[in-house]
Amino acid sequence: MILLRLLARLPLPLMHGLGIVLGWLVYWAPGRHSGRLRAHLLAAGLADSPRAQRRLLRRTIGEGGKAVTELLPVWLRPYATALKFVRGTSGWDAIDAATAAGKGVILLSPHIGCFEMISLYVASRQPFTAMYKPPRNAFLDRLMLTGRQRGQANLVPTDLSGVRAQLAALRRGEAIGILPDQVATGGDGAWAPFFGRPAYTPTLVASLQRKTGAPAFFVAAERLSWGRGYHLHVMPLGDLLPADKVAAATRINEAVEAIVRRFPTQYLWSYNRYKRPGGAPDPDTLPPA
Fold this sequence. Notes:
Layout lengths: L1 H7 L3 H17 L4 H11 L6 H20 L1 H6 L2 H5 L2 E5 L1 H9 L4 E4 L7 H8 L4 E5 L5 H11 L4 E5 L2 H12 L3 E4 L10 E6 L2 E6 L1 H9 L3 E8 L6 E7 L8 H18 L27
Parallel strand pairs: 1-9, 2-5, 2-8, 3-4, 3-5
Antiparallel strand pairs: 6-7, 8-9
Helix pairs in contact: 2-4, 10-11
């Protein structure tokens, strides 16, 4: 941990430069990472020519490496210092207004940019509850807890007790965090299109909204160029999600797609978004995108 804390002191531009190198090393290493990244990115159809596809892929590889190396300064620098990485926000007034009205807020953070920065920023302003699944590696678990459990952050298990804790937080008028683009556990999601392919999508947001009426906001942490820090973009979900699980999941995925199109190189394309978890039903046949 001492060595990691020393590395965390390196300037963020240097850490991002090292991240680009790391991104390419991981991309060329044996394993499924590079194939999945390339397949998901290119299948999304975000480039209109082979040349544009290659440029998009190169930038995505570098951004993926930055997402790893930046964790050291974000997690291990003093809390007040790490918060200074946030260079600005857009739309945060809407979250403040909802909080001032005594409402709990649901913050949806897709795997874009430095999404770890979002929870640190929120927890510096108000109580914030998020689910946490400990990794199998004990050292990594300690590192993640050191980085995430700061300020007014409260980490709860990814089980029924964690759902109850998030529901209680909303009823107290506090903020909770949910990853809207992770694969739901079997039985707790619905198949809905994501870039034209069925993805098993969490339905927890719709359930929590029906019980509390809490508004939901997407928050994306854009990674600024040349290691300048991050800009947090807030986008309201709008009306409450419908009760129908498929309709709710489809609306969530459409919103995530729109954000990804804004920051395509900063999305975690290597994540196995389309896998079928144990206990999930067969995906229904979806209409063409």
